[in-house]
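hiii so my PI (J.) wants the whole complex modelled not just the main chain, which honestly fair. so below is everything: two entries, each one labled with what it is. i double checked the lines twice but i was tired so who knows lol
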Amino acid sequence: MGKHTGDAVVVAEGLRKRFGQTQALDGLDLTVPAGQVYGLLGPNGAGKSTSVRVFATLTRPDEGRATVAGHDVVREAGAVRREIGLAGQHAALDEQLTGRENLRIFGRLFHLGTKRARERADELLERFDLAHAADRLVKTYSGGMRRRLDLISSLIVSPTVLFLDEPTTGLDPRSRNEIWDTVRDLVGQGTTVLLTTQYLDEADQLAHNIAVIDTGKVIASGTPDELKARIGGRIDVTVGDAAEIAEAARALAVLAGTGAEPDIDADRGLLSVPVGADSLALPDIVRQLDQAGVKAVDVGIRKPTLDEVFLTLTGKPTTTTPEETAR
Amino acid sequence: MTAPATASPLRTGLSDGLAVMSRNLLKLKHQPGQIAATFAFPLVSVVLFGYVFGSAIPIPGGGNYREYLMPGLFVMSTVFGVMGALTVIAKDNGLGVMDRYRSMPMARSAVPFGQTAADLVIAAGSLVIMAACGLLFGWRAHNGIGATLAGFGLLLLLQYAVSWLGVFLGSLAKNEETAARIGPLIMPVTMISNIFVPTDGMPAILQAIADWNPVSAATAACRQLFGNPGLPVGDVAWPIANPVLATVGWCVLLLAVFVPLSIRRFRTAGL
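here's the output for the full assembly
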């Protein structure tokens, strides 16, 4: 991370926050470069929401400092609030008003003036495809529509940084895709998005960079590919002739170079071995097997999923939905 | 587009407060049910208490029970006004609306001020409806326009004071469910008072509580200002003997405590 530290829009240094017995943040450091989606990934209670609350000026850190768009979140909270948008785990809307009325009120509270607030509400509803439901009460909206209206409520004054705290938790896949499209659209226009999620899939799809958080601090960070490379992958080989399994196993053990013995499924002629962080290229593997006299029917290098990365880094599984486990 | 440069804090505070207020008033437009309930409360109360209880309760010094009852019903509906702010603010807490407000470049005190202003407008509307119902059932204000307006003014002051209490309690509640549990507690506060029956028939301890209940002072004050029956005679507790002064005192006390507490709470909650 931090290739363009000069352009960092969110910077945290040694953030600590305790709530009663819980150390929610325990020395969190973070640098979020401008113009990208930055994912904060971690299990429940890892400190993701607390860090977003600190950045959004809702919670004061006990120790450490944080700046958003160059402003200190404690001393210049007012200036920070003019640069940010926040959409949380709930749809923070008035259910007894229509979508349009909600946006108009928020627009007035952003000091656009009554007339401009009206125009802006109409623009946003049109652009984000909610115009058809604009005059219905929010309580009649589906979960996905509420979340989308909530998201666009945080865009009334185009924010420099948008904080999305688990924006798709509990949404169906289609609504989730709509939120993802909106986020990509925003980043395309220069907004920086800090996204917290428990869904590895979401981080993999959206985030340019990821910080894995556990027990209140960052335990790993990088691009999704970098994180996957850190724990290495596996080589899977299928041989056509069961007699070649022993030869293939020997060759694979040498290739892997980790001292690990391949897992063997003799009935199906399958061999699988973990490889280190320095991934091997496919032609090298085929050549080595060939030299060992093994006729491989199928050879594959499998990158670890972010789930495996997460499990390796934190020692505990994330909460995943069935469709992600099936990936 | 970027946020416009801020004008003077007072001006933005005022416009933020107006936005929060109009949000609350806009809701009424979509809730004909609530407006109907506002109508129904005085109608049902007058029928229920006025005709059912009224047939068996003698008024000290004589007089029509419904004339005796109306000032109490005005006070009762005013005190129940605490639920308005309480419910809205608690619900906003639960849905995260409060967090959104607090992450926006608006004046944080706009929420309590806007909320209580909206409550005041709504209360004024429902007092008009109640008074119309009262007139229908034979209630009259006998002391001229000045005293009558003073009576309603006092009711609005009381409403404003309990509204701030509601804002504060709401800001402590995590969500709407917590708020709903507070509702039933208001009932005894209105019952242990002189709204429905004279307090001198109550056991001594209960009578002392009832006499010092702000609800009783407010009811006695309205009876005095509207010239309705049931005015205290002989040796009575101080708040009942000086009801207008006592009511104003209670309101000032409530406001002096809960305005600063609420504003502080909105500035610092969650920090």
